[in-house]
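To assess whether the prediction recovers the assembly geometry, we first specified each molecular entity separately, as shown.
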Amino acid sequence: MRHQGYATIVQPDAPAFERDTCNCGHCQKVIFLKPGSGVTVYLIPHRDGRWTEESGAFCRVCMRPVCLPCHDIGRCTPFEVQLEYAEKR
Amino acid sequence: MARYSVDFQRTASLTLSVGSLVADATRPRRGKIYDLILGSEAAAADNPFLYTLQRCTAAGTSTGVTPQPLDPADAATESDAGENHTVEPTYTAGAILLNIPLNQRATFRWQQDPAYGLVYPATAANGFGLQTDVGSTVIITSTMHYEEQ
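The predicted structure of the complete assembly is given in tokenized form:
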């Protein structure tokens, strides 16, 4: 998938943590993905080092994965539109 | 489209920001961040940090940093970078593009195809700021690669 990135965490007392990422199609937030899930399961990092799983979200207007806060908004505003708006100000 | 590297270091700063990268005030151009490295070079200790990459609409007051072109044949960047802020950038509420909690001993790297990086608009002083949620005198270092359009 063309929007995917890659995140790596290295620390002395744990094996390397490597996960695919994708960007929210609306706000561009970096989303961590569960391995093997495509973009259907997101990984949410917590301060105590835990990672929890959440069902992913997909916008069927712009046909891109979106982050959960943008999904809650329930409206499609692709980031390209937001950029053009910012540049017109 | 030229690509640049910029290195931020928060030393004894009392603000939360590690660094900021924004479009120039007079000749703003779009940019895309596609590689980000975070970590601390301080003596090993168990401090938790929540690193946040957030959009901003003003760069605040900081020590200027000169981004370096990855290809020496490219011209100097038009974007403005700064570190060791004395006045925080004006962050856009809720516009957080990356939140990653890390132990001080950990190093984080995120990479993306440069064509699909995190975009800041060609609007004066709009860009990204990198911060932690607590101020500290622990040295935090970050390297950002971006493509300017």
